[in-house]
């Protein structure tokens, strides 16, 4: 029974590792630069409802694979600080909310009136911060306009 259980765990680990390699390779092949927010996985695992799914996602391993594959290809992988306020900063005008509850998935900027989906707004802010970091390092970055999330 122990050997069968060990084989089952090994199959799951191999499947997860294979999937991570495929996803990271696809992302690296399709991109010149990738920017991602550093995640506090340990803190996220404290949510007992989502802990198993978060652990199964293996985000740390995915980021590690992306980092070494991007470096190997001569491309750039930028990790944005965990405390960068990506969700609560307006991607249109830069206004920063004092507080934004996790349950609130959409919000309207009180400064410019732009309506934001929390995740799309965070993605736009992470992209802009990644470009800012690369430019600060002296790398030439051409900024293509991102299509709106609703157009996708």
In brief:
One of its GO terms (molecular function) is DNA binding. The protein has 152 residues and is mainly alpha-helical.
Describe the structure.
Residues 59-126 form the Cas12f1-like TNB domain. With 152 residues, the chain is mostly helical. It folds into two domains: 1-82, no CATH class; 84-152, no CATH class. It has five helices and four strands. The strands form two sheets. A two-stranded parallel ribbon has the order 1-2. Strands 3-4 form a two-stranded antiparallel ribbon. Helix 1 (2-30) crosses helix 4 (59-73). The longest helix is centred in the N-terminal third of the chain and has 29 residues, at 2-30. The N and C termini lie far apart (49 Å). Mean pLDDT is 88; it is low at 146-152.
Features:
152 residues; two-stranded parallel sheet; 5 helices; Cas12f1-like_TNB; 4 strands; two-stranded antiparallel ribbon; IS200/IS605 family element transposase accessory protein TnpB; single chain; 2 domains; 49% helix; DNA binding; disordered C terminus; mainly alpha
Mean pLDDT: 88
H/E order of the elements?
HEHHHEEEH
Shape: flat
By DSSP, the count of extended strands is: 4
Number of helices: 5
Q: Strands of the largest sheet, in order across it?
A: 1-2
* Strand composition percent: 5-15%
Give the helix level as a range of percent.
40-55%
Radius of gyration: 18 Å
Distance between the termini: 49 Å
Structural class estimated from helices and strands: mainly alpha
Main sheet characteristics: 2 strands, parallel
Number of domains: 2
User: In terms of per-residue confidence, which ranges show pLDDT below 50 for 5 or more consecutive residues?
Assistant: 146-152
